[in-house]
Amino acid sequence: KDPDLLLGGLLSLNLHEFVTDVEEICDQANKEEKMEIQLADLTKRWQAIEFLAQMYQNTDVPLLAIQEEDFEALEADQLMVQGFMASRFLAQFEEEVIGWQKGLANVSD
């Protein structure tokens, strides 16, 4: 919200001559925003998940486990992250997405 940004200033940019480019930039920004929101939701979800310690068979070796509904979320989140990896809009979030891919794979194991 720039009070100095007026219609005349926008028109002087001649953006109407670059409609396709402007549409592509806007589309990319929308897709990146959607990915950013989904990554934030992913972070919130996994901050709330509680891990349980269960003893392995008849030993004193504890194993970490998660609830069944959390396991379903894990599978869904892994699919979402795979989709991010295939996205042409990955560059902005590549490091974070790779971190999630590795982290979710570790939880899955």
Task: Supply database-style keywords.
2 strands; single chain; mainly alpha; 109 residues; elongated; two-stranded antiparallel sheet; 64% helix
Number of strands: 2
Measured distance between first and last alpha carbons: 48 Å
Low-confidence stretches: none
Structural class: mainly alpha
Strand order of the largest sheet: 1-2
Helical residues, percent: 55-70%
Number of structurally distinct domains: 1
Q: Please report the number of helical segments.
A: 4
* Element-level helix/strand string: HHEEHH
Strand content: 5-15%
Mean pLDDT: 91
Radius of gyration: 22 Å
Secondary structure layout plus pairing:
Blueprint: H1 7-12, H2 19-48, E1 52-55, E2 62-65, H3 68-86, H4 94-108
Description:
The chain is mostly helical and 109 residues long. The protein has one domain. The chain has helices at 7-12, 19-48, 68-86, 94-108, and strands at 52-55, 62-65. Strands 1-2 form a two-stranded antiparallel ribbon. Helix 3 (68-86) packs antiparallel against helix 4 (94-108). The termini are far apart. The mean pLDDT is 91.
Task: Please give a quick description of this structure.
With 109 residues, this protein is mainly alpha-helical. It contains four helices and two strands, in the order H-H-E-E-H-H.
